[in-house]
Design brief:
Helix content is about 35%, strand content about 30%. By secondary structure, the protein is of the alpha+beta class.
């Protein structure tokens, strides 16, 4: 049977053979508690599997933001792969295996990258240090992005640094 539930708070009997999460952990308020909850819901020998963006994701946007504003990009703290591995161990998961892959997506232009993030619901409003850019800074950001990360025929790339993690309940 399958259960689609809030990963931060689900609970049920009996325990599951697999708990999986894809591209959601970066949004959790308390990642440690969510991993502890996943472990608590795994049967002995069960597997926890996840994919999540880690630091380095959207590096093109970060570099372009800094070039346009002189300030660091006020992005969501994605976390590092080893942080996730340590949190799994702390939650009581074993045989933690991680790999990280850079996944590059092509977009017609830099503005499409921003629009794509907005359409995913990945907005920045509410993040510490976020303030909408003015028109001049936005133009500088887009120009830098286009010049530095061109992929041919006017297209640009956006890189997602993706963590793949498997761990087992003992």
């Amino acid at each position: 049977r399958f259960l689609v539930a809030d990963a931060e708070s689900f609970g049920s009997e009996p325990a599951y053979d697999l708990v999986a999460s894809s591209s959601s952990f970066q949004w959790f308020r308390d990642r440690r508690a969510a991993l502890a909850n996943a472990r608590a819901n795994l049967a002995p020998g069960g597997v926890f599997a996840m994919a999540a963006p880690v630091e380095g994701t959207l590096g093109e946007l970060a570099e372009s933001f800094t070039a346009a504003t002189g300030a660091p990009w006020p992005h969501l703290a994605f976390g590092e792969a080893e942080e996730y591995a340590e949190m799994c161990r702390a939650a009581g998961l074993a045989r933690v295996r991680v790999s990280v892959e850079d996944v590059r997506a092509a977009f017609p232009d830099p503005f499409s990258v921003l629009r794509g993030l907005r359409d995913l619901g990945a907005g920045f409003t509410g993040h510490a240090g976020f303030a909408p850019l003015g028109l001049a800074a936005t133009r500088r950001l887009l120009a830098h992005y286009r010049a530095r990360f061109a992929a041919g025929a006017g297209a640009v790339t956006a890189t997602y640094r993706v963590l793949y993690l498997l761990a087992e309940a003992e």
